């Protein structure tokens, strides 16, 4: 029966994991803004690799900056979080138009492989600097940046192996804790790092494989019954 157990374990392992997974190299990370809301009163710009949004009137505009991590990024193993880039919120008192939401699209080029795209939505809460609007902090209020929908993920194939790339969220402590949002202090630039990872996609077992597993399970049960009857 040990032989049957070993065969069953090998077959099940084939369903849950995939062989041939290896370290990947990211050759470029290209971000862009999409679906800016409101569509007027918010200005988009690019400086080098950094993409920016600006809105509102005051001594300084409020806004977002996103700067992708320098590439290449080599030796990335499945299940290891890595920095996609630095996200900054310039939080200053403003009047006029405020950002409501925007999508951040991140294109990742795998060296020798495909271009993997992931998009997710950000909502922006430009709080009023009044005591009644500051339950968690003193006036002026912190603003809040939140990822509102499921974090972006995308399946891709590289050298015959299936993977899933996922955006994990923001971290302000070097990746020790990652969340889907963060509060930002008034009158300063607030920085968080956006993290992602790729994992090996489970390999579905063909119908014939399930029949094989069923047969192995039947033999295992029969063997146990036979063992009990002779005990």
UniProtKB/TrEMBL annotation:
Residues 1-23 form the signal peptide. The keyword Lipid biosynthesis does not apply. The keyword Ribonucleoprotein does not apply. InterPro entries: Choice_anch_K (IPR047995), VPLPA-CTERM (IPR022472). The chain crosses the membrane at residues 203-222. Keywords: Membrane, Signal, Transmembrane, Transmembrane helix. Coiled coil: none annotated. This is VPLPA-CTERM sorting domain-containing protein.
